[in-house]
Design goal:
about 40 residues, mainly alpha, 1 helix, about 95% helix, rod-shaped
Length: about 40
């Protein structure tokens, strides 16, 4: 039973990470560009 719970939690984490990457990709790229611009100054 514990293994089933672990599988469900692991699957939820994987889905959350994949969804988060897809959803926040633009924000992450924008943040990286801003950080690079600040370092160049």
């Amino acid at each position: 039973m514990e293994f089933l719970v672990f599988l469900v939690i692991a699957a939820a984490v994987v889905v959350a990470v994949l969804w988060g990457r897809k959803y926040f990709r633009k924000e992450i790229d924008r943040a990286k560009r801003i950080n690079r611009a600040n370092k160049d100054k």
